[in-house]
Structures are given as structure tokens and as C-alpha cells.
Amino acid sequence: MDDIRDEENTAAPGPVWFVTGAGRGLGRALTRAALEAGERVVATVRRADVLTGLGAEFPSTLHVATADVRDRDAVRAAVASGVDRFGRLDVVVNNAGYGLVGAIEEVDEAEARGIVDTNLLGPLWVAQAVLPHLRAQGAGHIVQISTTGAVGAMPTLGLYNAGKWGLEGFSQALAGEVARSGVRVTVAQLGGFDTDWAGPGMHFATPSAAYDELRRELFGTAEVPWHTEGPLGAPVAEAVDALRRHVQAPDGPFRLLVGADAPDQVTAALRARCEDYADDDRFTWPAPAVTA
Ligand SMILES: NC(=O)c1ccc[n+]([C@@H]2O[C@H](COP(=O)([O-])OP(=O)(O)OC[C@H]3O[C@@H](n4cnc5c(N)ncnc54)[C@H](OP(=O)(O)O)[C@@H]3O)[C@@H](O)[C@H]2O)c1
User: In 3D, which of 179, 103, 109, 93 has the Cα closest to residue 143?
Assistant: First the structure.
């Protein structure tokens, strides 16, 4: 067994990826792109059978581990099995996540805990599990799949916004903690992409009539769960290309805008924030240059 592993690890150069939520959507597309480029991937899924086909296509470069990212022990076991198989991890993509449509007043306790456990604590458990390996290697890149909704917030997406804002908060602190160990951290702020996220993957709180008018204003219908058809955003291949280019470059921004719609969304959110501060005449933006 060890001989086979040594052989597959010498034969396959390039980074070893660790991708959560690799069964569908962006996670699957990233996994396939890496495998097609000859790279190795530790793909985590909740049900191993969803990657049976891909496993048959890439038996020596795909390692499938089963983990629900809410389960800290399962995440640790998935990381350990990946390191055992390929000897290292280079690019760790915290991708698993979902959206929740519900006004703050509508979201129940299980829904609130569920999305925070998945979108915020899941990436935390993954980061904690991989960091000892990345620090020991003196290299590695953690890519947090975030959203332009982590810069602003939208009515009825508040718990989703909260989870991703939290993800960005701890990730910025983390970047400062691990840079000296040679570990990079990126938050990838995605615009809209055509995955299951806004369709079958979306969760919905039980609607209250008090928010029907708001839903009609935002979505054109008060009815939830909504019915979706047609592309739900840009082709996911565009996100894959942008993320692969970013990790291949020797350096780059901490916040990566991903998608043609992302820059305008972030600009609008930052402008609104600056306008909110603007009545306070101690606040000036752009900030004056600091002189020594
Ligand atoms: N698509 C967009 O427009 C968009 C925009 C901004 C940000 N994002 C972010 O992009 C990431 C990927 O989403 P996507 O667009 O690819 O959506 P998707 O097609 O709905 O895929 C979501 C993935 O997350 C996994 N997942 C959900 N909960 C999980 C849990 N508790 N444990 C393990 N895996 C779990 C799902 O696994 P199962 O198959 O087991 O359910 C699935 O593989 C998410 O973090 C999302 O917030 C997407």
C-alpha cells in the first residue's frame, strides 16, 4: 500500500487540494478542474457515493473523505486521511455552504444555529485541522469561499450575511496570524454563479405575512420557497478559472473579487457605508495620506 502511495505521489506534481462540499456546484467544478490538470484532490462530501464516477475517472489522484463540516471530529478525520494519502495539503478551499432566505424575525433557532454551524464554524474547524500541517510545511493557502454579501447585507438574507461576515472577520485575523509561517489566506467574494445555491440548495424560513410586501419588492413574489428555472448566475467555470489563477500566482489580494458582477456590488456596499459615516465630520474618505 505504501509503495502504491509513494508511486502516485511522485507521479502527480502540482498542488494537493482539500475541497469541502465537493459533491456539486462550485466544489465539484473546482475538484474536476484540478483533477483534469493532473493535480491531487482530497474532496469532502456528505455522501461518498456522489463522487463515485469521478473516483473511477481519477483513481490515483482523487481521495474522497466523508464529512459534514458541522462535525469537528469528522473534519479532523477527513484532513488526517487526506494527509495520510497524499503526504501534504497545499490549497484548502472552504467551499461547503448554503443560503437561507428569511427575515430576522422569521428565522427559528435551528435555522440560525444550522447556518452558523455550517458557513462560519465549518470553515473554522477546517482551518484548525489543516493549520498544523500547513505550518509544518511552511506553506499552504486557505481559500474561504465568501460572497459580496459579506461586504453589504440584504434584507431577508441576514443570517447568511452574518455567517459570511463572521467568516471574513476570523479569516482576516487568521491571515495576520499565519503569514510568518508562510501560509496565505484569501477570502473570495463571489457574485452570482449558476449552481444549486439560489435554487435547490436554498433554505427558507417559514414566511410571515408581515414580510410579504418586502419579498414582493425584492424578488417579485411573496411566495417562498421560490421556483427557479434557467441559469441562476454566471457559468461556474468562470469562478473556477479565477480561483485557479489566484492560487497559481505567487501573491495577490486578501479579498478576491470573483465574477463580473462582484466589483459593482462591493462598490455599492462600500459607498453606502462611507455615506453612513459621512455626517460625522471626523470621518474623511478617501483617507488623507499618513505622513511620517
Ligand atoms: N452560487 C453563488 O451564486 C454563490 C455566491 C456567493 C457565494 N457562494 C458560496 O459558494 C459556496 C458553494 O456553493 P455553491 O454555489 O456551489 O452551491 P451548491 O451548488 O448549493 O453547493 C453547496 C455545497 O455545499 C455542501 N454543503 C452544504 N452544507 C454542508 C454541510 N453541513 N457539510 C458539508 N457540506 C455541505 C453541499 O453538499 P450536499 O450536496 O451534501 O448538500 C454542496 O456540495 C457556498 O459557500 C456559497 O455560500 C455561492
Answer: 93
